[in-house]
Amino acid sequence: MIAEIHNDRALRLFGALLALAHGLAVLHWAFSQPLAAILAPQNWPAICWPFFADCASVHVLDQAHVELGLALLGLFSLVTAGLFLAARTTLAFWSLALLAIAKLAVVALDYRLRLNQHVMTAWLVAAFLLVPQKRRVIAWLLVAIYFWAGVLKLTPEWLNGSALYGRLPLPPALLPLACGYVVALELVLIFGLLARPRWLFWLTFCQLALFHAVSVPVVHFFYPLLMALLLAFLPLCRAIAAPPLDAARWPAVATVAVFSALQCAPLLWPGDVLLTGEGRLWALHMFDAPLECQVWLTPHGPDGRSGLPAPLPVGMLSNRILCDPLVYASAVRGICAHNAGRVGALDLHLQTRRAGQPLFAPIVDAPDVCAQPLDYQLLAHNAWIQVAKTPVPAQPGLPVLRGH
Hints:
alpha+beta; 5-stranded antiparallel β-sheet
């Protein structure tokens, strides 16, 4: 693996770009998604991944120490990039592996840190480090990422433009046309990145560059700059001659097959997974349709009488997990632990709808969640998540959570 990278200047340069992609994540955590605030002990409840349900126990660092850790991670990314540029390939290889592990460890500290940017980077780093015939594997994987992102956009909300949280510099009448063009680009035209004719490759590449430049008002800086770093691999491969490449294509086929199979995983769960969120941890989670939801707790006194419903606010949620049942199951677990012995029975309720629809689908109606914690299963349907209930109107007096 290391020899293949060492003997190919394009791969060494891409290794440097992958290291810089981790530094870009540090900038995102410093300026767009405040890591220090998310991990601050006083900002409870923590929102934990299912595989690390006790993540609150490691939310112990103050802002200064979190910022120091981020600075060290950013410096580590620059050092790793420098090692690749200096052709210190063995040291650079292991440095990138440690850098990727460190970044994934940070993401594991809180579910709110989940982003497609981290998923895509992790896949490409894994292919770069672990799979032979890296030029072909990475190129195919980049195309597969765009293709499955296009599949996710085959929704009415994307095609009419309502899925966009920000504003594009386009007249409203042209928005559906632009969104349809993006779907065509990602599902069909994207294969031009693998084409032999230079004109077809550059036509596709320039369309992607334009797409990401125009998307900045919607997704801000992290995603467009990350894709610029990752897509730079393709011109590098055309500009720098490759060492002799084995004709066998099985590493690329196997990698893309595993990636694609995981994108199909949500189909194995019942109900509308857009509303339930089940199975989506295994796949990309890009723009599809905006959701609106109401979430509240109903308290019960020692005499069994119900109190007034109260909203369950959780801070610093991104649009794509704003209505995720996993978020509120984790939040209420933290509330119960924080107030052990000081609260009575609490019922958790969550109802969700696609933006613009009049009625909500009841997703969670869980009684006494402090006595019966809502454990989240990654590989099976969670019985406390409802998939076939009669739609209901909005709960009066409670806010409707909407993405911006």
